[in-house]
Design brief:
With about 700 residues, the protein is of the alpha+beta class. Helices cover about 40% and strands about 25% of the residues. The relative contact order is 0.12.
């Protein structure tokens, strides 16, 4: 949120050094503070002119009128400032690759979409990017301030020759005819829209399916969105640019340290099997149940809200609050019970594990582990007592234990969990046997791009996954002579680790005429190693699906070796998932296989939650850490057209869109059943005339 501060408040400071510091801060491009310069136009003009001077020529006091008049009288100085307006932009083509040159984009915001965040949802901001030597000249017309209730800049007020600014210009010795020339130049250099006619060799291009053909999309970074992220209180990490003035005015004002949203999956790396981890927990705390989740801040906050439910004014508000808290408590209870559920399954494959549980042989947990599925409901009362006892063992939550207002809600969620473990042990009668699925297990990604776009760091891009599967589909169809279609996918992350190292780029053809064999410039990135599963929903004729079911070798051989810029490998031969490529035509049987995935993993699910600001992302994540931002696709800034150097017949500049995904635990997906999984877990690309966005299939 931007704070509006009267300029007079800072001008009244008697300490020149402090006053200069505050003035520089308020007129910086990245500032979350704007000065209200109403009725102080002359002083604001003096400050802006003095701010453009190099440090060695800049006066100690930025309100030094004599120095400002001298600069304004210098035609070379003022002309240089006006000329740099030709490189003002709304979307920065030089971010992050400064080798893109002599191009800019001036564009209206894309069409607003309810599910994603773009520059259509933030205040407009015009930045500059050109020659690093002239970065100071650009500040004169780019710096923003508050004037007569609106956010303005010198470019805007002189473009329209506002009377107050005309008077301020004349008070500095400027001539009216010169002001008209400046106004004409600003109107000529700042048209409503402007796009390059040629795609620069250093601009990225992504081939996407569009209208029964392919289109080349060049993702560009919105300066307004980048500024909104810098001013937000969302969780971020910083990218470093070694030549910030060459990237743009905003990056230069930040000293080359640019914030990007940082929400990686919260997964603990496990070096042991699950049963070994649980035996270690038993030795450490004397219980298998996951008591740590009962200390989470969101669980404590939920109990607090439920305890105050009776004080909410209306019955409708009480019902809404109760439903919201019940959903969160159900998730917590499932996580609390998850070790018992998974250890029961581990005992089936490793019967010797039960012998190592002798220390708790007389406990409810031990009896639960060896009891048949049909009798699990009888453990409701013992487990409910155990839940309240563990709540009472922590000083922050002990006053909630056996609290009458909470008893019925907690008991209801525990009862639901126990009933679900029984119902999910059998195939669902609603499963559709005509649907085919391909399950690729425990694929290993090394050095994948953790920057899903230049706003978000975390998991690789969902569109990268779609492109990976589209490539896979083409290879299979060409090999088998078939016409199958990968209609949707579900994504399960088993393991994740991140890296911030800067990688040395490979040699390729570069230079003005693409004739020099050399390395590209260093661009800092974020990378990750992952182990993940992908479930692919496949559509095609029955004969083609039958052919695919018997083509195990082809399914393995044509798996692409690259994903999200990294190296993709199948699991090692020695691993427990050596049979990593499974084709299923019975969805009921397939869901039983899905239920055996490790409970420590997370599903990446679509969500219907909408966002309208960067700070709203932080607020939603604070309430529920499962919801995180990532790249969801592209919003077109223009109608596709033919351009020189395009990788397809049609080309379009597009803005990356930020949306929310939900990291859902495996225990929740399993307990909510097959119908929920098939309806909720799958992604597909929704292609419209002005957008390409990932959404629920």
């Amino acid at each position: 949120m931007v704070n509006i501060v009267p300029l007079q408040t800072v001008l009244s400071l008697t300490d020149v050094k402090e006053r200069t510091f505050q003035l520089k801060r308020g007129f910086a491009l990245h500032s979350n503070m704007l000065f209200d310069v109403s009725d102080l136009e002359s002083t604001a003009l003096i400050i802006l002119i003095n701010s453009t001077l190099p440090a060695k020529d800049r006066p100690d006091d930025l309100i030094d009128k004599r120095t400002a008049k001298k600069q304004l009288a210098n035609p070379d100085f003022f002309n240089c400032c006006v000329e740099e307006v030709a490189w003002f932009h709304t979307h920065n083509l030089k971010y992050p690759d400064i080798r893109v040159s002599m191009q800019r984009i001036l564009s209206l915001p894309p069409s607003q979409k309810s599910k994603v965040l773009s520059s259509a949802d933030v205040p407009m901001f015009v930045d500059w990017a050109h020659d690093a030597k002239k970065v100071n000249y650009a500040k004169l017309f780019a710096a923003e301030f508050f004037w007569h209730g609106q956010k303005r800049s010198l470019a805007k007020v002189l473009k329209e020759i506002e009377p107050e600014w005309k008077t301020a210009f004349q008070s500095m010795g400027g001539k009216v005819q010169d002001l008209k020339v400046v106004s004409d130049s600003l109107n000529r250099l700042l048209p409503p829209t402007e796009f390059p006619n040629t795609v620069d060799h250093n601009s990225p291009q992504i081939r996407m399916p569009y209208r029964d053909d392919y289109i080349a999309v060049t993702p560009v970074v919105s300066s307004a969105m980048l500024l909104a992220i810098q001013q937000s209180y969302a969780r971020t990490t910083e990218l470093s640019f070694t030549r910030p003035a060459s990237v743009g005015g905003l990056v230069s004002s930040l000293g080359g340290w640019v914030k990007v949203l940082h929400y990686p999956p919260n997964l603990a790396r496990q070096g042991q099997s699950f049963s070994q981890n649980q035996l270690g927990r038993l030795a450490e705390v004397g219980s298998i149940l996951n008591s740590k989740v009962l200390r989470r801040k969101d669980f404590i906050a939920s109990l607090e809200r439920l305890s105050r439910l009776g004080y909410i004014a209306t019955n409708r508000q009480q019902r809404i609050q109760l439903r919201a808290q019940q959903k969160l408590l159900r998730t917590i209870v499932l996580q609390w019970l998850a070790p018992l559920f998974e250890l029961r399954e581990a005992i089936v494959s490793e019967p010797q594990v039960i012998e190592k549980l002798s220390s708790i042989s007389d406990s409810t947990e031990y009896e639960f582990l060896i009891a048949p599925v049909s009798s699990l409901k009888q453990f409701l009362n013992p487990l409910f007592a155990c839940l309240n006892n563990q709540i009472s063992n922590y000083y922050v939550t002990q006053h909630f234990a056996f609290e009458p207002r909470l008893m019925s809600v907690l008991r209801k969620q525990l009862s639901w969990a126990l009933s679900q473990i029984e119902s999910t042990s059998y195939p669902s009668a609603d499963d559709d046997g005509s649907v085919s699925y391909l399950h690729l297990k425990a694929l290993r990604l090394f050095d994948g791009a953790a920057l899903s776009n230049m706003y978000c760091s975390g998991i690789p891009s969902l569109t990268a996954m779609w492109g990976f599967l589209h490539h896979y589909q083409r290879e299979l169809n060409a090999s088998l002579g078939a016409n199958i279609r990968f209609a949707a996918f579900a994504w399960f992350i088993r393991d994740y680790s991140s890296s911030t190292e800067t990688k040395l780029p490979e040699f390729d053809m570069a230079g003005a005429n693409q004739r020099e064999f050399k390395r590209r410039g260093l661009i800092e990135g974020r990378y990750c190693d992952m182990t993940f599963d992908v479930v692919i929903r496949i559509e095609g004729d029955a004969s083609e699906l039958s052919q695919l079911a018997s083509a195990q070798n082809a399914l393995k051989a044509h798996l692409p070796a690259r994903f999200a810029g990294g190296t993709l490998l199948p699991p090692s031969i020695s691993s427990s998932t050596a049979d990593w490529c499974q084709f299923q035509q019975n969805s009921a049987t397939f869901f039983k296989e899905i239920g055996l995935l490790p409970y420590s993993g997370r599903w990446v699910l679509p969500t219907r939650k909408s966002i309208s600001s960067v700070n709203e992302i932080a607020d939603i994540n604070k309430i529920n850490r499962a919801f995180v931002p990532t790249h969801l696709g592209y919003l077109f800034l223009e109608a596709p057209k033919r351009r020189k150097n395009s990788h397809a017949s049609q080309h379009c500049y597009a803005e990356s869109a930020i949306g929310l995904v939900e990291f859902t635990r495996q225990i929740e997906i399993r307990m909510q059943g097959a119908r929920n999984f098939y309806q909720r877990a799958f992604w597909q690309l929704d292609i419209r005339e002005n957008s390409m966005l990932m959404g629920r299939a």
